Amino acid sequence: MNITRRHMLILLPAAAMAWESVLAGTPEDAPNYTMSEHWWSMLIDIPRCIGCGNCVRACQAENDVPDGFFRTWIERYHVDDWNMANPQVISPDGGKEGFPSVAEDDKGKYFFVPKLCNHCADSPCTQVCPVGATFITPDGVVLVDQKYCMGCAYCVQACPYGCRYIHPQKRVADKCTLCYHRITKGLTTACCEACPTGARQLADLKNPNDPIHAFLKTHSVQVLKPQMATGAKVFYNDLDGSVR
Amino acid sequence: MPGVDGFMYPNEISLYWSVLIVLYPYITGLVAGAFILASLVRVFRVEAVGPTYRLALLTALAFLLVAPLPLQLHLGHPERSFEMYLTPHRTSAMAMFGFVYLWYLMAVLTVEIWLDYRADIVALSQSTRGWRRLFYRILTLGSSNVSERALHIDERVGWFITLIGIPSAFLLHGYVGFIFGSIKANPWWSSPLMPVVFIFSAMVSGIAAVMLLYMAASRLRRQPIDMRCVDTTAQYLLYTFIVDFSLEMLDLIHRIYEADESFRSLNFMVHTKLWFSQVIVQICFGTLVPILLLAFVQVTKLSTAVRKRLYVISGSLTLIGIFAMRWNVVIGGQLFSKSFLGYTTYKMALATREGLLVSIGLTILPLFILAVLVKLLPPWPKEQHVLQAAAGGD
Question: What is the crossing angle of helices B53-66 and B19-42, to 10°?
């Protein structure tokens, strides 16, 4: 085939755009790791969480999270008797340094709820990103290509769970990566590793031997804001109806 | 924590969309509204508003040129914004911004202005000297044929472009409404009425702006104001405003009656943080007062001087009210927690990239651009006669 100047004028911009798309979607190198064999999620066992803040500190140390922003945080709920519509919730500095103690005669129930990105299968943040900088990997982790993100914050607005923020120095969207740099090397996440009670457990839904399958069969498990239909993949055991 | 009442998710405490994102729908609304007013003359043959036709088109262009600036200033990495053209994400409502904007700028507005002004441009390219002559010669794009047949073709094509322009103007601003209305995570925004409300509020603001600009320009030029034109424009402003207000009230009544899980939180916000900007500024002074004033003019026989004053007051209040509406949508939508358990505060900086001074600058900038456009492409009937005389003389 003879390629004329006319052909070149058409082909070159098309090739440049295709190459840019290829570069944008290239994942980090991870030898011996096959993305299609995994579908990552997390299990949070609420009765086990003691609100120590280890997970928040570990996440901030591992991922260099800027002060005042959180990839993961802990909320403490206080529900007074039947009044589920008006829980009193606190999360001082994301629960990083734990929580103030509770007076013994205080009424109602107290419990901790660790939060992080839900790595939704139908994530609204991925849907709205105008340049496709936010994407879901074939192994089910929602990530941000920070070399591509233009920092418009539309994804921050679209996340129903408040899991995203604009990094004050990098000026791009930032969020939990489920420690992708660790899990693709066979490690667990920093938060799971730091949890002293096993309240957080990384789970691979595609692995038939993962203990999550037995757990899901025998426990009452829920995701946050199921009415949002985001396909959230962080499962909560014993989630109280007052939790938002 | 200062500025926070109740519980916010920790990443929600600072707002991510600032006053610049308030300006963006405000400015594009003025563009769309001004264009719709111009289409009244061209497509719907409302001859009475004819004197505002060209001014409306130039106003739309002046504001459209500024519309992307608040977005660029807001972006963390504006240098990457061209990626929206190269790799637009098909599922994103925002990804279409660049294309809708370019379509409207290049395929609708500039073409319509060029066709409408072509005979004038040709005349000016012959009657002027120096750099102005060169400028107008470039603007002719090599076409100096102003025969009757050529002008007739211009007229027909211009009419067709305006016809395409009406849905395009609806698309431009309805789409901005969709950016907010399609966010299911935010109950303050999530509403199928949002694009429709945005379109009608755009028409309201555009008509009010052109009416005020026409009156101000006439005063500056020491020319009499064509009261038939202003009366008709004010009539259209009133009708559009009533539709706009009805839609907003429909949305409000629906929210109150349905009272879903977000209602208590949003209701509290309207009664506290948004009380001044929404109830006082937007609804009372920015909507009810101008509607009542405009309606009052319709049912009474007032002198020209009184009508002029009432139009200036109602037009100015309208522009303030529509700005407040954009503010309440954009800022209000970020003041409450998505947990519905708390509220934060918006602190506007003064001299930062997204601060007050920049916002004021961006609001005034289109007026400067409009002044230049008016100088280069005079939209007034008188100058048109001079032009015709100049063209005939050459």
Answer: 150
* Chain A residues touching B11 at Cβ < 8 A: 69-70, 156, 162-165
Residue B213 lies in a domain: yes
> A86 burial class (0-12, 13-18, 19+ CB within 10 angstroms)?
exposed
Q: Is residue B111 a part of any domain in this protein?
A: yes
ipTM rounded to 2 decimals:
0.93
In a domain, B54, yes or no: yes
Check if the beta carbon of residue B347 is closer than 8 Å to that of residue B12. no
Could you tell me whether strands A40-45 and A234-237 are parallel, antiparallel, or unpaired per DSSP bridges?
parallel
* Angstroms from B87 CA to nearest CA on chain A: 6
Report the CATH fold assignment for A34-237.
Alpha-Beta Plaits (3.30.70)
Residue B380's domain spans which residues? 20-259+354-388
Measured CA to CA, the distance from residue B315 to residue B210 in angstroms comes to: 9
Cβ neighbours of B72 in A, within 8 Å: none
pTM of the complete model: 0.92
Number of Cβ atoms within 10 Å of the Cβ of B24: 23
pLDDT in tens, A108-135: 899 999 999 999 999 999 999 999 999 9
The whole-angstrom separation of Cα B225 and Cα B219 is 8
Biggest distance spanned by C-alpha atoms of chain A: 87
Q: How many C-alpha atoms does B115 have within 13 Å on its Cβ side?
A: 20
Count of structural domains within chain B: 1
Which CATH number goes with the domain that contains B188?
A: 1.20.1630
Reading across the β-sheet that carries A221-222, which strands appear in turn? Answer: A200-204, A40-45, A234-237, A221-222
